[in-house]
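hiii so um. not sure if this is the right channel but i have a protein structure encoded as tokens and i wanna go backwards to a sequence. like what aa goes where. can anyone help
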């Protein structure tokens, strides 16, 4: 962010936003359940595609992300628990049926193909780890960071871009996976406070509208027109990087030992569901990472 040209943090806006933070910080009782853990891992495997959500068929009153999640859960409820073998057998045609999308020979079909690949990769990954979600988690020794690094062995989790010849690591879904497992009461982690924000397209959108980051006028006009950002482009990387750094700044300003980046990130993401934020076009990029 110190070398960013198109996006910058606004200290006064961060100060004001930090005073508004209010979120429940539950610590659930942890009871492992293999079927539920597999559902959680699968849901995170397809937790991307925000750049397609303006064209996919959604459930009434649901966002694209919530629609895809709801349809995957409905499929599992109807067909039984997932395992590694089932995941590896899912085709693009299956994805079309699971997620309620037509294979249009264009962008939506591309997304269904990417969903199928993501689920296939997860099935293979689990097979390589003794064939169960339990063994995957056991091998991480209750470390969220270790699980994130482990998940990043899969291509669609290897969320690293190049900016001015330097690698910029985001690992959005690799990090949100242990956070979700913890929130769902499925696994205990000792180092959740070390996770960064889960950089997507919505959090920087919220931060911009709340005056915590500024984006250059030409980029804002492009977003307002509905132009898609090129994955890995300077502006796409700067927006996501700004979200990560801004959340760290907000955590420092809130200054509470039990408030971590994952809490502030979730608060901002849920804030983005408000009418004010939905009424303004957000940045979109057709990426497999968010």
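sure thing!! here u go:
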């Amino acid at each position: 962010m110190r070398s960013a040209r198109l996006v910058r943090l606004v200290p006064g806006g961060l100060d004001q936003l930090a005073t508004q933070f209010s979120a429940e910080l539950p610590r659930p009782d942890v009871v492992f359940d293999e079927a539920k853990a597999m559902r959680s891992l699968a849901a995170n495997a397809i937790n991307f595609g925000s750049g397609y959500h303006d064209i996919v068929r959604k459930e009434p009153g649901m966002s694209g992300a919530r629609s895809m999640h709801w349809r995957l859960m409905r499929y599992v409820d109807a067909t039984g628990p997932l395992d590694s073998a089932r995941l590896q057998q899912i085709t693009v045609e299956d994805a079309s049926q699971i997620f309620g999308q037509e294979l249009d020979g264009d962008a939506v079909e591309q997304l269904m193909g990417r969903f199928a690949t993501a689920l296939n990769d997860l099935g293979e990954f689990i097979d390589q780890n003794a064939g169960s979600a339990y063994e995957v988690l056991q091998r991480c020794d209750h470390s969220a960071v270790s699980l994130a690094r482990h998940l990043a062995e899969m291509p669609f989790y290897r969320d690293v871009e190049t900016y001015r010849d330097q690698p910029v690591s985001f690992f959005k879904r690799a990090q949100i996976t242990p956070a979700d497992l913890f929130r769902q009461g499925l696994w205990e982690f000792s180092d959740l406070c070390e996770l960064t924000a889960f950089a997507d397209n919505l959090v920087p959108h919220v931060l911009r509208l709340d005056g915590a980051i500024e984006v250059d006028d030409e980029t804002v006009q492009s977003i307002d027109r509905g132009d898609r950002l090129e994955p890995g482009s300077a502006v796409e990387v700067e927006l996501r990087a700004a979200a990560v750094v801004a959340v760290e700044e907000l955590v420092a300003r809130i200054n509470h030992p039990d408030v971590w980046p994952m809490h502030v990130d979730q608060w901002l993401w849920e804030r983005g569901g408000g009418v004010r934020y939905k009424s303004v076009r957000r940045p979109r990029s057709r990426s497999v990472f968010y």
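oh and The chain has one domain: 7-278.
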